[in-house]
Give the backbone structure.
Amino acid sequence: MVYPYAGNLGGGGFMVYRLNDGTTGSLDYREMAPAAAHRDMFLDSLGHHDSALSTVGGLSVGVPGTIKGIFAAHKKFGLLPIEDLIDPVIALAEKGYVITDKQSARLAQYREVIRETSGTESLYTKVISAGDTIKNIALAKTLKQLRDQGEQAFYGGAMAKHMSQFIQAKGGVIQMEDFQNYEVHWRDPIAFNYEDLEIISMGPPSSGGICLAQIMGMLEPFDLKELGHNSALYAQHLTEAERRAYADRSHYLGDPDFVNIPTEQLLSPAYLAEKMTSFSTKTATLSGAISHGNIVGHESDETTHYSIVDPMGNAVSVTTTINGAYGSKLFDPELGFFYNNEMDDFSAKPGSPNMFGLIGGEANAIAPGKRMLSSMTPTIVLKKGQLWQVLGTPGGSTIITTVLQIILNTQHFNMGMQEAVNQPRMHHQWLPDVLQFEYDGFSEDLLDTLNQKGYKTLKKAHRIIGKVDAIMRHSDGLLEAGADPRGDDAARGF
């Protein structure tokens, strides 16, 4: 309701949970390709990827999973009636909320493309200034139907018929049957050890857990504390591990219901050690010289993350998105929300980058009913068997490396959660071969040192890498929240 920039009734996401009895699991409510989708749907007559088709308008929309995910989680874990959960949101939609400076600036930036894509004037094509109050009566009506009729209101009947017709009228191929056939999946999370930590994160079709495990596995043999926080050597070690993991991501990872992912081999210590044998502190390893590893036999800033620990000690880490800013830019004035543009997270053409610059391979090619690969990394960390952290972030391809840096900040440099979240961040993703830095917090001397070793560095004004919302449980049981000052983020204890 208050963050249409990232949705999310028209999107999807992932939840990782740990109950107070130690039970862990994850829920995949990622969007999927409609039945009429095909692998060349975003290629022009010359076979080139037309990024406009995969990012803006009806063809970019995947079948949303958020509503089914919410109701599935409520059915499995919920204690309160669904009315108690939805009624406050309905009241907020009817009474309105006050726009912040950041929200006003984003709306101004995207107002024209929203108008052009939707083809009509609507709530978010108006000039909206900071301090204005926004009421979304159409969304309130939609939420009332969900409250009274459950998920079936969204995935069957009049609402599904309307959505399919609306999306088709804007160039899409989603049919009513795609809504009716959508299912969520309860999946085993990715769990791995790092020093005295057990880390539980999301598995495919998210690349987050496997990539995080690979990076941390490659870094574990090194004394990161001795290197110094955010020093040139520290940046080198993170970069070289990151580029190798992202190369594997491009080749091996996709929807596990469609492709065979060699998870055990990808996470084996011997395999990860072998990948780092070409690393030298004297010079950069060029990404062009790195491809995926040899296995025998073989996703924005426009995302929402929340971390919760309840009074009973249950923890959830949830990352959910409509992909790009305001998703497909396609706003439904009758239902009151934006649709996603998640089809861009597929490999429209193997070797062609998506909106985040990520290169995809055959494993993530478009297919009917398939879920697109994601970078979302909702994560829970145990220390000596006890709940220690719940964390995650938006940020597209930077999500994985942001989560990594928060864990390393707290594990090796004795930071509390807010201090860890506040630290400046860096990012490398194999291709493009660029080591990115946030503008504040990194000296020119550090960049010069890295440049002399052959790294291509980039430090841009207003560059933000992630917006973390995280919780740390201290040894005395105190819960410390870290809300990222990079956004309008906040932490609350009830």
